[in-house]
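> call design_seq(struct)
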């Protein structure tokens, strides 16, 4: 039975029993910032168990993608070394939300295992919670399991809890006896015996534990089951190890192929060297699964959070690759094999193949650049240890901080040498670095109204931490529909003020907080910023005020600033959609800033965004602006309803029961609580001002809209003027060169003269002034288009000018060479004789090395039988060319490269080339005459060495 058949068999079984087959949630949780990765099937149903959400079905089944690499489930060191630990795995599960309960769950589990999949009943054991008599009775009455195989255990093994408080309940585990002859006894269950393995856990959620630890029965009871897919494949495919199943073997075989290393697969009875090879292949096969699925679900390797988990795994896998002799990037080459195995059931990895491979390869290349040096330091440190078994924590920290070695990688290297890392010292060094980082008090940024004040920074922190308990129910934000309102004071503390209702938006979702003024008791007070404390908007005032709860206040937002922010926020949504349209759906937001004067957007993408891609993105955004699309603001709708709408969520963000969605036609639909324009036409225009990298796999773009675009226009006009000035200078130089050749009647030059006059007229047309419009919208777009055309004209002009200059420079060079033909003949006539050879050595006028070589060719053609050396001073240095005629090469065994090299050596330089022509360079201009005078003796010496004297 293949793994695909096992998975589908599970689905079909529960579908027959009225279950809805639901897709796996991403391994990066949508709305749970407390969780690095989905680590159990219940994660996507957590809101149902907490009574905060509902589904349209009461029975469900799925296979959930899970990653466990940290916390209490961290068994990283066991991965690849035993048969069943993995960092990525699938969890098959069936669920009941207030529908069926223990009876059906137990009966169906037994039916699937024994009747559908045919597992031997005598090999199965069931465990129940020590106080769950009901479950024990059901196992004995609803199934034909051996009653002696139903065992009771305590809370450690058979009681499930979501956390210290909240939903919980007893569970019943099913174990399989894989001993030869089914000889397991009850004492071997839950005892860590590898041959008696848990394969399915049935959780019965029936209690709620309060803060005091008391259990209360829930009004609705739920079932939550989880079956390890890889383990079940090993059982049904009769394999001793999960790695021997068709889930892993294609990957392991591909690793063996790439490394040209054999894979044995046995866990015992093999040589230690083969065991290490096998372990490396299993680790790599495991880690590439985690990396692929996490990156497909929008995680990015980085230096913090889940990104650092991925970076650790990738570097760990890369190091195991070194054990297999692979020093070049190889992990990315495993992705297609994984897609062939799992891409049908999880199409997201197929859809994002290019992005996954680029991201992994980029990370591999970055780590490879430091891995070898880090390993050298590790080895040197071991040599310095002497008899000590403790690897220094300061060295481990250096490997981490400078060479990117995760601590667990250093621990792995140390363990292989029988050493342990001084983790305490490592942690001390880490804390010292954190203290140094915290000592830096960065300025507080606020767009074009930045306030560089450490004091304001502390006030902002105070605002976000303000005690607002009990105020939530009395607070209302009215700023979506109006920019001024009357309210009353709820709370006041120094520069901080909370009103019962306010139009001031509190900083959130990348959008800066509003500024403006409050009128309190007839006094006007400037609002410098607005921050959020929980769900309450806190006004930060320019100066402290005396305000008592109940005092009347008129609040007025700075309308022009808010309007600019709204334009940029809506433009950010258009930008996000355009990025995904042009670059691919792997793109997702990794950070943003929406300020009044610009917007900044960080997003996941493995490579630089090209100029053509930037233009396509910019054009698409401006197309949607010109379309004048009316925005739909869906406010305060149910979270599940918003998900059904297909609204784009941001991984790691926390969403409440009620959310807001911004819909821009069919182009963009995102969860967003920010403020926006009513129509895309209000944005006016969108223009990029920069693109770059902020971290591995994360790009950043900055852009401006509307009035801020006028400032960018002014800068571009200045740049345009500078380019025109350059073009004018180039044209003047071209005309000067033409005047030098005034007497020459070459057709090429005549054509160039006419073309130059045309270029001069075109330049004057381009130089016509360009005026900035006073309004945004269509006028601004027209001006941008004109400026773009102007830039294109300049570029075309400069390119054409460059071509004309090349033609003229060639003609000038030809003229100079022709003018020196008489000089070359004189040099040949006055050549020095050396045993039947003519030797010429002289300084000439030349404007380039190519020109000097052309003179050398002319000299060679007139020498007959001999050697010529010509020198010229170019850019303050000596340039030499040596030519040797065919007769001298054949008859005298002379080579131009050796001759010119010997002369260059006299001048402190060097060079070389072919037998008939070679060049050299040197700095000693003063010694040139002496060097040229030595040419005959150099040639004579060369002939003597070759035996031709």
């Amino acid at each position: 039975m293949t793994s695909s058949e096992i998975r589908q068999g599970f689905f079909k079984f529960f579908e027959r029993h009225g279950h809805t087959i639901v897709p796996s949630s991403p391994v990066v949780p949508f709305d749970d910032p407390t969780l690095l990765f989905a680590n159990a099937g219940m994660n996507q149903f957590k809101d149902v168990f907490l009574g905060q959400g509902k589904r349209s079905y009461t029975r469900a089944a799925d296979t959930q993608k899970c990653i466990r690499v940290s916390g209490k489930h961290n068994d990283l060191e066991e991965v690849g070394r035993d048969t069943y630990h993995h960092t990525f795995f699938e969890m098959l599960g069936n669920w009941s939300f207030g529908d069926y309960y223990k009876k059906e769950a137990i009966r169906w589990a037994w039916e699937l295992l024994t009747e559908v999949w045919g597992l031997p009943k005598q090999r199965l054991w069931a465990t129940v919670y020590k106080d769950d008599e009901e479950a024990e009775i059901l196992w004995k009455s609803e199934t034909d399991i051996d009653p002696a195989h139903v065992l009771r255990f305590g809370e450690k093994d058979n009681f499930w809890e979501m956390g210290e408080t909240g939903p919980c309940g007893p569970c019943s585990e099913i174990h399989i006896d894989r001993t030869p002859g089914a000889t397991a006894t009850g004492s071997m269950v839950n005892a860590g015996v590898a041959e008696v393995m848990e394969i399915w856990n049935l959780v019965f959620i029936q209690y709620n534990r309060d803060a005091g630890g008391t259990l209360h029965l829930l009004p609705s009871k739920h079932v939550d089951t989880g079956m390890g897919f890889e383990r079940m494949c090993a059982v049904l495919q009769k394999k001793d190890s999960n790695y021997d199943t068709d889930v892993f073997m294609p990957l392991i075989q591909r690793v063996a192929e790439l490394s040209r290393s054999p894979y044995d697969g046995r866990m015992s009875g093999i040589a230690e060297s083969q065991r290490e090879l096998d372990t490396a292949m299993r680790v790599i096969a495991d880690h590439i699964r985690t990396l692929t699925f996490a990156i497909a679900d929008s995680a990015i390797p980085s230096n913090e959070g889940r990104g650092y988990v991925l970076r650790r795994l990738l570097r760990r896998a890369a190091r195991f690759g070194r054990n297999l002799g692979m020093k070049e990037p190889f992990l990315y080459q495993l992705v297609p094999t994984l897609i062939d195995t799992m891409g049908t059931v999880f199409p997201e990895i197929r859809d994002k193949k290019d992005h996954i491979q680029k991201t992994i390869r980029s990370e591999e290349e970055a780590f490879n650049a430091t891995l070898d040096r880090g390993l050298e330091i590790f080895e040197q440190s071991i040599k310095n240890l002497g008899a000590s078994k403790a690897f220094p924590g300061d060295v481990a920290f250096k490997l981490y901080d400078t060479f990117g070695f995760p601590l667990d990688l250093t621990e792995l290297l140390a363990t292989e040498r029988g050493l342990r890392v001084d983790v305490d010292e490592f942690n001390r060094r880490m804390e010292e670095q954190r203290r140094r980082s915290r000592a830096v008090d960065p300025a507080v940024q606020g767009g074009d109204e930045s306030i560089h004040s450490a004091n304001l920074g502390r006030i902002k922190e105070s605002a976000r931490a303000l005690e607002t308990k009990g105020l939530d129910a009395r607070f209302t934000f009215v700023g979506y529909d109006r920019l001024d309102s009357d309210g009353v004071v709820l709370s006041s503390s120094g520069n901080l003020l909370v009103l019962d209702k306010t139009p001031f938006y509190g900083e959130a979702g990348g959008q800066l907080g509003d500024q403006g003024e409050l009128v309190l008791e007839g006094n006007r007070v400037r609002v410098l910023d607005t921050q959020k404390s929980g769900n309450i908007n806190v006004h930060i005032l320019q100066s402290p005020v005396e305000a008592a709860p109940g005092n009347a206040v008129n609040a007025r937002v700075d309308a022009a600033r808010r309007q600019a922010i709204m334009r940029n926020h809506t433009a950010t949504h258009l930008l996000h959609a355009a990025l995904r349209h042009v670059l691919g759906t792997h793109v997702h937001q990794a950070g943003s800033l929406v300020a009044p004067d610009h917007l900044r957007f960080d997003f996941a993408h493995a490579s630089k965004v090209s100029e053509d891609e930037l233009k396509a993105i910019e054009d698409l955004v401006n197309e949607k602006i010109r379309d004048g699309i009316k925005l739909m603001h869906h406010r305060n709708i149910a979270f599940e309803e918003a998900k059904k709408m297909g609204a784009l969520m941001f991984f790691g963000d926390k969403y409440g029961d009620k959310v807001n969605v911004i819909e821009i036609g069919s182009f963009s639909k995102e969860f967003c609580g920010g403020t926006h324009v009513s129509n895309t036409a209000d944005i006016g225009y969108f223009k990029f001002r920069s693109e770059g990298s902020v971290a591995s796999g994360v790009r950043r773009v900055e852009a401006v809209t509307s009035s801020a675009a006028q400032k960018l226009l002014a800068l571009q006009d200045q740049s345009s003027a500078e380019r025109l000035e350059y073009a004018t200078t180039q044209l003047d130089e071209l005309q000067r060169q033409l005047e030098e050749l005034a007497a020459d009647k070459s057709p090429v030059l005549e054509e160039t003269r006419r073309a130059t006059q045309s270029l001069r007229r075109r330049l004057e047309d381009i130089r016509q002034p360009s005026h900035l419009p006073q309004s945004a919208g269509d006028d601004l777009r027209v001006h941008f288009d004109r400026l773009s055309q102007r830039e294109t004209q300049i570029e075309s002009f400069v390119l054409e000018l460059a071509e004309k200059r090349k033609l003229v420079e060639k003609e000038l060079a030809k003229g100079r060479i022709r003018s020196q033909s008489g000089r070359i003949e004189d040099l040949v006539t006055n050549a020095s004789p050396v045993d039947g050879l003519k030797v010429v050595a002289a300084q000439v006028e030349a404007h380039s090395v190519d020109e000097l070589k052309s003179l050398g060719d002319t000299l060679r053609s007139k020498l007959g039988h001999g050697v010529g050396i010509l020198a010229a001073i170019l850019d303050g240095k000596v340039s030499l060319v040596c030519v040797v005629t065919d007769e001298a090469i054949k008859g005298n065994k002379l080579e131009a490269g050796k001759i010119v090299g010997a002369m260059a050596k006299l001048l402190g330089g060097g060079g070389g080339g072919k037998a008939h022509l070679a060049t050299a360079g040197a700095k000693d201009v003063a010694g040139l005459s002496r060097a040229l005078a030595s040419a005959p003796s150099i040639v004579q010496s060369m002939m003597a060495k070759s035996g031709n004297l």
